Amino acid sequence: MNLFVDFHVLQTVPPSCVNRDDTGSPKTAVYGGAVRARVSSQAWKHAMRAEFRTLFTEEELGSRTKYAVDLIVTEMQKLDSSLSEKICQKQAEEALKLAGLKTKSVKKDGEEKVETDALFFISYKQASAIASHLLTYNLNDKEQKKEIEKVLKEDLKENPSVDIALFGRMAASDPTLNYDAAAQVAHAISTHAVQNEYDYFTAVDDLQAEDNAGAGHLGTVEFNSSTLYRYATVNMAELVSTLECEQAIETVKKFGQAFICSMPTGKVNTFANRTFPDAVYVTVRSDQPVNLCGAFEKPVPKSQDGYVKKSEEELVSYAQKVYRQFAAEPQAAFCMGEKLETIAEPLPLPALLSTLADTLRTSLCEG
Q1: What predicted TM-score, i.e. pTM, was given to this entire model?
Q2: Per the CB 3.0–4.6 Å rule, which of 83, 159, 160, 284 could disulfide with 125?
């Protein structure tokens, strides 16, 4: 069956530069003919994965890295501390090659390191399983080497971490190791037009002579402030095909918490810009995911009430229009934010996530 969980968030961010382009400017996008503040999906997913570290155990997670060899070496030495790092590294490199990944030797800080040719998403359970098999099989034995090749491929397909299940994995060197992503995260955009501004700053040299009035450093930093519309969706059918049902439900619950509460950390020491959302709207749908960014195709105009109130009103109005025209009312809907109470059940965040989990449990596990 089709089942999608959509997360819609309105969040006001004060002067900040949480996500920069190659010139150091806050990222923007043109939408509805107006320039909007933008935070890329990659930036927010990175922030979410950092938040995952506080919500999941290490065994439930993975690492996107070029140093998968080092991860396996660590696991091998946990199992047998008498093994030298050099021997473990050689075996781990050979194992990844047998499993279908390409590796190369590089010099880092004067040391010889082995990297995969591209970032590879590997779970800690997968690294541990490979390490265990490397202590069981002899790679120098031709017959065993043929046998372990199949085993190692299975190690990298089984026991995916929750973040692999959510965000997917691509291995160009061996597509059989790929995982389809169960989650999608949109680029966040402001509900209104923005214009980047510049902060001219100086830094004083603490030890300069008292009669020297000059600055020790001059500079500028570009920033903007905005009310962002953020959207993410999770395909529960895809997630349940990878994880056990109960684990999938706990995963989407924590995914929701991480999406709602996380924020990219760009220039955070300069601006101290971290905020909670102003409004949250979560729906469970059985037809398709629905991004409601069309509510803001016409930029919200500035007013004495700011942008949040009008943004909430536009989100509600557009959602009702979509549901009316496409007969696509969600199966369940929950919210935080007064204006959203006409289309969803209002709940504080802990209760919202728990109720969401109970709703999914009824639809997926019990049904």
Answers
A1: 0.93
A2: 159
